[in-house]
TrEMBL record:
The lineage of its organism: Bacteria, Bacillati, Bacillota, Bacilli, Bacillales. The keyword Metal-binding applies. Gene3D superfamilies: dinb family like domain. Transmembrane segments: none annotated. Keywords: Metal-binding. This is Damage-inducible protein DinB. Belongs to the DinB family.
Length: 154
């Protein structure tokens, strides 16, 4: 559980760094903003599924703007903090049943879902950084090891 907690601290830190960069450079690339929205909407969908609530009406890919991203970051951080605080270590291997966006049913452990969400965001933050570089903007360092070095957490 300690590792998962740290992964979510990193996730929140990385999302905040991307947001601040997009705000500071006045990112006008809708493609970059849509990728960032996708990360945040997917986080929202997954925490909803982890709670056993139907997520079929929530968007996964939807256009947005920086203000929507800022709002989603706060909501997702609060929702995951509450969720992670409420579960016990033994709950991590419990299976969660959910229906994906195409209507297909699946079962996965909480541990696998939580790991997926953290890795999914990092994958798309890499895509955002690639697009920022192509636009002549310095990519955002969101490496896990940078986060660890900055905060020296155990």
């Amino acid at each position: 559980m300690k590792t998962i907690q740290k992964m979510y601290e990193h996730l929140n830190w990385a999302n905040q760094r991307i947001l601040e960069t997009l705000q500071n450079v006045g990112a006008d690339s809708q493609q970059v903003i849509n990728l960032f929205c996708h990360i945040l909407y997917a986080e929202q969908v997954w925490v909803t599924r982890l709670r056993g609530v139907d997520s079929s009406q929530l968007p996964i890919w939807s256009e947005g703007d920086i203000a929507i991203c800022a709002k989603l970051i706060k909501q997702n951080e609060e929702n995951f903090k509450t969720f992670l605080t409420d579960i016990e270590k033994t709950d991590l291997d419990n299976l969660i049943s959910y229906t994906n966006s195409t209507g297909k049913e699946f079962e996965c452990s909480m541990r696998d879902i939580l790991t997926h969400v953290a890795l999914h965001g990092q994958y798309h933050r890499g895509q955002i950084n690639s697009r920022l570089r192509a636009d002549g903007i310095e990519p955002v360092n969101v490496d896990f090891i940078t986060f660890v070095r900055m905060y020296q957490r155990e």
